[in-house]
Write a structure and sequence with these properties.
Radius of gyration: 30 Å
CATH class of one domain: Alpha Beta
CATH topology of one domain: Nucleotidyltransferase, domain 5
Number of strands: 5
Oligomer: single chain
Strand order of the largest sheet: 3-2-1-4-5
Number of helices: 4
Structural class: alpha/beta
Order of helices and strands: HHEEEHEHE
Distance between the termini: 90 Å
CATH architecture of one domain: 2-Layer Sandwich
Helix content: 40-55%
Strand content: 5-15%
C-alpha cells in the first residue's frame, strides 16, 4: 500500500460537504431576507418645521412665541406649571387670535430625561390646539478671539 493522492471516496465526501454548506448558506440567506421584509417600518412623528428666515428681529420673535417646557413629569406654559389635559385649552386660548402659521409657533423645551411618551403627548396637545411645534436646541459656538 503506497500513500498517494486521495481517491474517489475522499473527493466525493468533500463535494458532499461543500453542497451541504452551500445549501445551508442559501437557506440562511432566504430566512433573513424573509424576516427583514416582514418587519414593520418604524418612523418617528412627522414634524412641520417652520423656516428659520424671518423679517422680525430675534428678540421680538422670542416675545411673540409661546413657550412650553417639559421635564420628566411636569409641563409649563410660558412658565406656569399645569397638568397636560389643561395645556390644550389654555394654549388654544392663547393662539385663537393668531391667523398665520408663523404666528402660531410654540417653542418646546425638553429636559434630557423626558420620556418619549410624555413628549408625544405634549406635542400632540400643542398640535391639537392649533400650534406649530418648533424645537429649541442648544447650539455650541466656538468663538475665536484675536
Amino acid at each position: 500500500m503506497a500513500a498517494g493522492p486521495a481517491t474517489g471516496k475522499g473527493a466525493a465526501h468533500a463535494a458532499w460537504v461543500m453542497n451541504l454548506l452551500t445549501d445551508l448558506a442559501f437557506n440562511l440567506l432566504i430566512f433573513f431576507v424573509v424576516c427583514a421584509s416582514s418587519a414593520k417600518e418604524q418612523k418617528g412623528k412627522p414634524q412641520q418645521v417652520p423656516s428659520t428666515q424671518s423679517d422680525a428681529k430675534p428678540s421680538e420673535a422670542k416675545q411673540q412665541n409661546v413657550e412650553v417646557a417639559m421635564t420628566r413629569t411636569t409641563v409649563s406654559l410660558n412658565g406656569a406649571m399645569m397638568p397636560v389635559p389643561e395645556l390644550k385649552t389654555k394654549l388654544a386660548a392663547l393662539l385663537v387670535n393668531k391667523a398665520k402659521p408663523e404666528d402660531k409657533i410654540v417653542e418646546v423645551k425638553s429636559a434630557k430625561d423626558t420620556p418619549y411618551s410624555h413628549w408625544i403627548q405634549v406635542t400632540g396637545a400643542i398640535e391639537e390646539a392649533g400650534g406649530v411645534v418648533t424645537l429649541q436646541v442648544e447650539v455650541d459656538k466656538e468663538v475665536i478671539v484675536k
